[in-house]
Amino acid sequence: MWLDSLIGLFSVDMGIDLGTCNTLVAVRGQGIVLNEPSVVAVAKGTNRVLMRGGQPAVGWVAKEMLGKTPGSITAVRPLKDGVISDFEITEAMLNYFITKVTGRMRVIGPRVVISIPSGITAVEKRAVFDSAERAGAWRTYLLEEPVAAAIGAGLPFAEPTASMIVDIGGGTTEVAIMSLADIATCESVRVAGDDMDEAIMAHMKRTYNLMVGEQTAERIKIQIGSAVPQEEETSIEVRGRDMISGLPRKTTITSEEIREALQEPIGAIIETVTRTLERAEPELAADLVENGITLAGGGALLRGMPASLQKATGLNCVLAEDPLTCVARGTSIFLENIEEWKTTLDSSMDG
Ligand code: ADP
Ligand code: MG
Asked: 297 C-alpha to center of ligand 1: Å?
């Protein structure tokens, strides 16, 4: 026991948001210290992680290599759909991020809380847990993502009242109703920001015979995408490759047509939210009339997203402060209160 306390003195508390798009690390007393894409560059057709300058090509380095590399390299997002597509690649990524943060601090071994998508299986959880231990974590805890998001958003998640979080990420949307530091009802659906990008790509093909890349589609979404009609509708010029001539071409698109193209993924997200509400205990549902719904994750930043959920549910919907860092901040706050909130952890894997 004394050894534990001694290590505790020199250890650092680290909260990790292992997202489908972005991984963030928050350290107690320092805030967010790392924010990189959840991307790993591998040799095509293998799961061999590429090296660059003596370091594994992970995060920004991997993303930079994307698109500017010969066909022999592919970029993998190992958690893209909220499930782990490849354990080795996931481990390489987690290991890289943890050592990148601990490396500059000279600590004995961090205490780590990792937030994981709530849809992943027990085997996948075990793999994340073991990877963190192998990366040098002294204590590892796994926390369901919606819980982390709720804590980061400052919701009264441990109180005897219901709070509801809708976390729209890249690959998955997590919806949960919580009370007394526990999840009462939750659903995870594989429709989120990536699907909005895909809907835009499909629209460009269908309407203009124009192929646009994923990054262009994401840019269109962020620049002019919306979930409900806007006071000021806009238009932008888009470049891509003509599907018939095969040549580069540009065209102008409007925010109205992009909104139309986004209806399907947005509809699927809304449906998940209403379904979760229908499954809620009456007492908790009653609380939500007062407490409303809080939105987190990058996808929640789509213009009019809270308004469209509010229209569909009749409940007050608000955007969490800084939705992209909510989960990471939540994991860090969780560590500070771990003794009190321990019961919330995945019981198969604490300590
Ligand atoms: P994850 O937790 O799954 O890693 P994030 O919460 O980091 O995902 O959100 C990433 C998603 O948010 C991406 O699909 C990205 O395109 C989207 N996104 C980021 N900013 C905006 C914005 N301003 N408007 C719409 N979507 C956004
Ligand atoms: Mg997330």
From this structure: 6
